[in-house]
Amino acid sequence: MAHKWAMVVDLDRCTGCEACVVACHAENNIPTAGEDQASRGRAKHWIRVESYWEGEYPDARLRYQPVMCQQCDEAPCEPVCPVYATYHTDEGLNAQVYNRCVGTRFCANACPYTVRFFNFYNPVWEKPLNLQLNPDVSVRSVGIMEKCTFCVQRIRAAEIQAEGEKRDLKDGEFNPACVQSCASKALVFGDVHDPNSEVSRLARSNRSTKLLGELGTLPNVSYLQRGV
Amino acid sequence: MFHSSKQYWIAVALATCLVLAGVCTFLYQVYTGIGIWGLNSPVFWAFDITNFVFWIGISHAGTLISAILRLANATWRRPVTRCAEAITVFAVTIGAIIPVCHIGRPWLAYYLIPYPSERHIWPNFRSPLAWDFFAIITYLTGSTSFLLLPMIPDWAAVRDCSTGLRKKIYGTLSLGWQGTPRQWHRLETAMHIMSIVIVPVAVSVHTIVSWDFAMTPVPMWHSTIFGPYFVVGAIFSGIAGLILAMALLRKFLHLEDYLRPIHFQNLGKLLLTMSLLWFYFTFAERLTTWYGNDPSEMAVFWSSIRQNFAPMFWTMVVCNFIIPVPILAIKKLRTITGTCIASVGIVIGMWIERFLIIVPALEHKFLPYTYGHYQPTWAEMTLMASSFGLMFLLYLLFAKFVPVISVWEMKAGLHHPSATPHASTVTEVPIRSGFDDNPLPSDV
């Protein structure tokens, strides 16, 4: 049976350290937008840690919520692309074909989570950052959309490795960069078609909810609500 | 027809400058990226798509009105139809250029065309943008034929009274027209078929434009009212654009004897109807949203009514309803000047309406953390000015090289006020256009 990749975010465990954001930038060749562009609303983070204040001073609490592409089964971004640059893979991923994208930005408008990013300019890496590019990931040019892929390059590498060794993938054998770097283990990744995987177990928890689940997008990311 | 004043060439030069400014901006944008615009995350569409919807809206003046008036046999339409149809063709052309300029990689725009490719990739027919592509191409083809068909006898008339190269060009354009009864019959039949066909095409075009918004789960976009709301808005702004174009033609080409106060009065009545309809739709849409009280929609609702977009919103209501309705409803005020004042307001108000549909909704999507703010830049302003420049340029050239009043239809009206012409000998009467000093007698 084909895999179906999914993620669980435990909101009780997230400390808002943003290690996942840094790891994602390094893994996926995401350039930093810079002060000027970021102030114009063009910061580009495939995963971001949203912060919300709860309560009034002095009983205020800061809550964190990491948000990345939810890899929706009924993704609103997919049907609107006029050139099939975004589509659903057999393994439940919402894929972006950079070569095919003409940059209508329709998908970004349709996405309720605002996790699709547009390349307003060609990417630039100041020296020596240009030496740390990940050779497994395409660098995206001006005029196209990009988004979280669940580190599809790692998924493919692990699948090919397992296929070569004629064995099944083990749960937790590999992880996307954000999950790998999460010190408090707030992020868990795996195959929900495997009922014994940790991600399946956690997704069945009664704390499990979907972000904006009422929109019917059927996300493959589950959020475990805070206990307190 | 072929002698033009100094002012004419100054106007052409100014319009050409605007167009060139737009071309340069576009080339610079291709070289650097759409970053020179004010777009950001989450406002991925703003001025670009506002202008696109605006021009497609303006295009609904011509063909639709002219087709309906033809089908209703409204004889007063005769001098109006051609300048209306020309607006349509030019506005759709501009409307079709804008999406190509607005995409991130304009040099790959041909991916939207279903051409046979060895990779077997077709456009995505589920996408409203793909529907848009087909709708606009169909409308452009249809409205161009609708404009060109009844021009054939007039071109033949120009051919018969000119010499040299001019005779050759107009001879080619008139497609061997001789004015035989058979040819007249065919032309009438073709025009009748086109009038019927073009109405559903025009309605579908703006409905599909509205679906670019309504088919997405964005607060205040995802609405069943958008199809008819957009069609009404399009016809509304289209008639206003037509009245302004007619007033300009009347003034500068001295067509006072053809475009008479009665035409402005009748179009003014149509405009009044559309203004009331527009208000009804806007009111129904807002009231439904307010009662529904969905938090994500209310964020958009209040941002446009009370917060940062409130000045624009209330300007829109004043321009589209409060100013035009009294002017157009009171017979004494429904003069040429009156309808022009109302039309200027409506053109501005309807541009704002499209902006307010697009931008506040994108600024306030579901997650408050992602709320954004949009500010246009010089590049978007230049491109917008350039689209107006292109409209003026095309219209100026059109008024110079084509009889802006359908000569044969006017003459058909002379002899048979309500019937269709049969074998009228067009070539006997010399052709005139507004650039001449002596207009035709005024008893038309």
Could you say which structural class the secondary elements and strand pairing of chain B correspond to?
mainly alpha
Order of helices and strands of chain B: HHHHHHHHHHHHHHHH
Report the mean per-residue pLDDT of chain B as an integer.
Answer: 88
Work out the number of β strands of chain A.
Answer: 10
Helix content of chain A: 10-25%
Largest interface: A-B, 45 and 45 residues
Shape of chain A: globular
Stretches of chain B where pLDDT is under 50 for at least 5 consecutive residues are: 417-444
Set down the secondary structure blueprint.
The complex is a heterodimer of chains A (228) and B (444).
Chain A lengths: L4 E6 L8 H9 L7 H5 L8 E7 L6 E7 L9 H4 L5 E3 L5 E3 L9 H5 L5 E3 L26 E3 L4 H13 L12 H5 L5 E5 L6 H6 L4 E2 L11 E4 L4
Parallel strand pairs in A: 1-10
Antiparallel strand pairs in A: 1-8, 2-3, 4-5, 6-7, 9-10
Chain B lengths: L5 H27 L14 H12 L3 H10 L6 H25 L25 H21 L3 H9 L3 H10 L7 H34 L11 H27 L8 H32 L2 H11 L4 H13 L1 H6 L6 H28 L14 H24 L5 H9 L29
Helix pairs in contact in B: 1-15, 2-4, 2-9, 2-14, 3-4, 3-8, 4-5, 4-9, 4-15, 5-8, 6-7, 8-9, 9-10, 9-14, 11-12, 11-14, 12-14
Question: Your description of this structure?
Answer:
With 228 residues, chain A is of the alpha+beta class. Chain A has helices at 19-27, 35-39, 77-80, 106-110, 152-164, 177-181, 198-203, and strands spanning 5-10, 48-54, 61-67, 86-88, 94-96, 116-118, 145-147, 187-191, 208-209, 221-224. Chain A has seven helices and ten strands. In chain A, strands 8-1-10-9 form a four-stranded mixed β-sheet. In chain A, strand 4 (86-88) and strand 5 (94-96) form a beta hairpin. Chain A is globular. Chain A starts with a strand and ends with a strand. The model of chain A has no long low-confidence stretch (mean pLDDT 93). Chain B is an all-alpha fold. Helix content of chain B is 67%, strand content 0%. Chain B is built from 16 helices and no strands. Chain B has helices at 6-32, 47-58, 62-71, 78-102, 128-148, 152-160, 164-173, 181-214, 226-252, 261-292, 295-305, 310-322, 324-329, 336-363, 378-401, 407-415. In chain B, helix 1 (6-32) runs antiparallel to helix 15 (378-401). The A-B interface holds A 37, 40-44, 48, 50-52, 65, 67, 76, 79-84, 100-106, 108-110, 112-114, 117-122, 142-145, 212, 215, 217 and B 32-35, 38-45, 99, 102-105, 108-109, 111-112, 121-124, 126-130, 133, 212, 215-218, 362, 365-370, 372-373.
